[in-house]
Write a structure and sequence with these properties.
The protein is of the alpha/beta class and 772 residues long. It contains 28 helices and 26 strands. The longest helix has 29 residues. The protein starts with 5 loop residues before the first strand and ends with a strand. The model has no long low-confidence stretch (mean pLDDT 96).
């Protein structure tokens, strides 16, 4: 049986299995059916997240080991809860000291039985693996090396030595290894192994190899077979060579006993591939719909105009989303992912060298074609089916425009054919197709999520994974259409509002989104704080809007988030090329202004927005809990929860004071557990349109004739228009009890309309349950 709801816990040494076990009674009382645990397999010591897996064979000792996990599962089961576990198949920590498989490869070279685990191009460079781990160039750190116990040591790092080389002089010893130690900056252009995005500390794993899959999944499969684990969240499937093939292997290995969802980011109208044997996604597509339906499109456009006017020349590409995203894509593919495009060029070059008909394609032309096609992929990646819909002839024509000589542009057709698998099925052809798709997903993530979303800031609530910063609002009809499709095709998919990866929690985004209903209030607020000098207008806009959403002056949390935003944007400083003076100015401004001034109390107009922020937050929460799919609560979000980008949002779980959100969560989850058939695959979703002058401000739907959800949207615009007036909602036939107060009752049917002024008299949301 799929979960009725999940609750995400961030495990870490400060919050191990034993701490999660102590939280079980509280979480069971909340009404969830499953606990969702962050990665549980062995990871780098001290890791606060667990995505840097070092050994798939064992459960992480720092969390309490396998005994601790099994004890947690038993306690959860005794309280009626199951466990869902975050699984990381795409990558491992590139730490020779802790990663036993990588250590073996570095010691034994390409003949190691573990060499098949990793995408290493042994034909690149001098035939050795580049390890970009040195803090400076080799001559500058040479005197800090020491050899001991069959290993090479440097500043706490440890590297295995090839057999028989331990007694060599240092220079000869370094040259005799199957790896080359290099300055960390070499990773950008010289790296010869696949990594996770641009993080060289995480090396890609070849789970498409049956032996690698079996070895890296044996422990998880055992835990599933033993009933310890009942569900799996698959991290970053787009990084895999063949996501569908992997998911088919996983389903076969687990015997279909697992509820499985994938962290798949859907773009625009993209849908999850129908052939994937999963319950659905982790829910970023639902997050986009929920955020968008509570955003005012007219005000969002006005904010975009105000942003371009206020930020002016400091806005990237004049403050236009499409141009900003395209520029970011070109920068990332040519700079951050230079090693990945070089790897694709090498593979394409080898294919051409082996085929007399292709030998005259110059490497520069192949590289240009690869770059131009990659930046034109409109989604995260193409798949084994449907690739033609992503790498379209139109995309090829656009890519050819980058060539001055039309004859050279033929490289675009070749690269497109290779990426689609239309030019042969040899090992190199399959490798190119997989690596092109893997690089495409990395490019999309780095250029949109991690760059453009930080460069384009009119309405920061729209800048979340899966969101559309250029089109932040979602019409009600579009929201209903999405829900109807999900109820039909993926009824057990996941839904979320906050996660460990959201840049701003749902409550922070709700406050920011309310500004779309009153851009003039935002303009006035910016004018009021203009006296606090900022390094530039873009960082001022970003920082003040972040602080407005956060709501409470707190420099210890705001300053790091704002510093991260300017580094990710890469306009004036970056992680790899920092501008110390600029960053110091940003930190001083953030501490003196956004970190000190209570912006939401800075004016009467701003303070008056609090009821509308509440309406948005409660409305989104209730809609998520009752819409099609399996809702996930991120830790602590059963009450008001304000958090910024990681690591701020990854603090350990703690039981806190309950509020009206908690009561809403309990009521909704209680109904889901009491009537799973009404919300699952057998249930129905029926939009309930309101009638009257304020009908557009009500979002309502029924689930299987048992539960009705009705929420207020754009409540500030509603108030400005005179309130609900005579607007009515027709409930389905029957008697309906207010599940939030347990007192009020309403009658449904075509002749018994309910006045929305009455329905929302106590709160801006209503949850009704049919009276049997």
């Amino acid at each position: 049986m799929p979960p009725t709801s999940t609750y995400r816990l961030q495990l870490q040494p400060e919050f191990p299995f034993a701490a999660a076990e102590r939280a079980v009674p509280y979480l069971a009382g909340l009404g969830v059916s499953h606990l969702h645990l962050s990665p549980v397999l062995e990871a780098v010591p001290g890791s606060a997240h667990g995505y840097d897996v070092t050994d798939h064979r064992s459960v992480r000792g720092e969390l309490g080991g396998e005994e601790g996990l099994r004890t947690l599962a038993a306690t959860a089961r005794a309280h009626g809860l199951g466990l869902v576990v975050d699984l990381v198949p795409n990558h491992m920590a590139a730490s020779p000291r802790h990663n036993h498989a990588l250590r073996a490869v570095l010691r034994e070279g390409p003949d190691s039985p573990y060499a098949r685990w990793f995408d290493i191009d042994w034909r690149a460079g001098d035939g050795r693996v580049l390890l970009p781990v040195l803090p400076a160039r080799l001559p500058e750190v040479r005197d800090r090396f020491r050899v001991s116990g069959g290993s090479l040591h440097l500043d706490g790092q440890e590297f295995p030595l090839r057999a028989g080389t331990e007694g060599l002089p240092l220079d000869e010893l370094l040259d005799a290894q199957w790896y080359r130690l290099g300055w960390w900056r070499l990773a950008r252009t010289e790296l010869d192994y696949r990594r996770f995005f641009t993080i060289s500390d995480l090396i890609g794993v070849r789970v498409e190899d049956p032996e690698v899959f079996a070895a890296s999944h044996a422990k998880i499969v055992e835990l599933v077979a033993d009933g310890v684990v009942e569900g799996l969240r698959i991290d970053h499937p787009d990084g895999l060579a063949d996501p569908q093939g992997y998911l088919e292997d996983l389903a076969a290995a687990t015997g279909g006993r697992c509820w499985t969802v994938v962290e798949k980011i859907l773009t625009g109208r993209e849908t999850l591939p129908a052939g994937w044997p999963v319950a659905g996604t982790t829910g970023y597509d639902a997050l986009r719909q929920l955020d968008g339906v509570f955003t005012d499109p007219v005000g969002a456009d006005e904010l975009a105009d105000l942003y371009r006017e206020s930020v002016g020349k400091t806005a990237d590409r004049g403050g236009h989303w499409e141009a900003t995203a395209r520029r970011a894509a070109y920068e990332v593919v040519g700079h951050d992912l230079a090693a990945e495009t070089a790897a694709l060029t090498r593979i394409a070059g080898r294919i051409c060298a082996a085929d007399p008909a292709l030998r005259d394609h110059a490497p520069w032309a192949l590289r240009t074609a690869i770059r131009e096609l990659l930046v034109r992929v409109p989604v995260y990646r193409p798949y084994r089916t449907g690739g033609e819909e992503v790498l379209t002839p139109e995309a090829a024509r656009g890519a050819k425009a980058a060539f001055a000589v039309p004859e050279e542009a033929a490289a675009v057709d070749l690269v497109r054919d290779l990426a689609l698998g239309a030019r042969g099925d040899g090992p190199e052809h399959r490798a190119f197709r997989a690596r092109f798709a893997q690089t495409s997903s990395a490019l999309r993530a780095k250029s949109v999520e991690d760059t453009a979303f930080y460069r384009y800031a009119p309405l920061l609530s729209a800048n979340e994974v899966g969101g559309d910063a250029g089109r932040p609002a979602v019409p009600v009809d579009e929201f209903h259409a999405y829900c109807l499709r999900i109820a039909r095709d993926w009824p057990d998919t996941g839904t979320v509002l906050s996660t460990h990866d959201t840049k701003r929690s749902a409550d922070v985004r709700a406050a920011i989104a309310v500004l779309s209903q009153c851009p003039e209030v935002w303009a006035d607020l910016l004018a009021e704080v203009a006296g606090v000098p900022a390094p530039d207008a873009h960082v001022a806009w970003t920082a003040w809007q972040t602080a407005f959403g956060f709501g409470t002056p707190d420099p210890d949390r705001l300053v790091p988030a704002i510093l991260k935003s300017v580094r990710e944007a890469g306009l004036r400083t970056s992680w790899t090329e920092p501008d110390a003076a600029y960053e110091r100015a940003v930190a001083e401004f953030a501490a003196a202004g956004p970190g000190r001034i209570p912006l939401r109390a800075a004016s009467e107009a701003a303070f008056a927005l609090e009821p509308h922020i509440r309406a948005h937050a409660l409305g989104a929460a209730l809609a998520q809990l009752t819409m099609p799919g399996v809702p996930e609560l991120y830790q602590n979000t059963e009450r008001e929860y304000r958090a910024l980008v990681d690591p701020d949002n990854r603090a350990p779980f703690a039981v806190g004071p309950e509020d009206e959100r908690t009561a809403l969560v309990r009521a909704a989850l209680r109904l889901r557990r009491a009537h799973p058939e009404a919300f699952g695959a057998a249930g129905t979703y029926v939009p309930l349109p309101a009638e009257g002058p304020a009908a557009a401000h009500c979002l309502a739907f029924a689930r299987s004739g048992r539960v009705v959800t009705a929420v207020t949207r754009l409540s500030l615009r509603l108030a400005q228009a005179g309130g609900w007036q005579d607007t009515e909602l027709v409930l389905p036939e029957g008697r309906w009890a207010d599940a939030l107060d347990g007192v009020r009752e309403f009658t449904g049917g075509p002749a018994t309309e309910v006045k929305l002024a009455e329905l929302f008299a106590e709160r801006p949301v209503a949850l009704l349950a049919r009276v049997e």
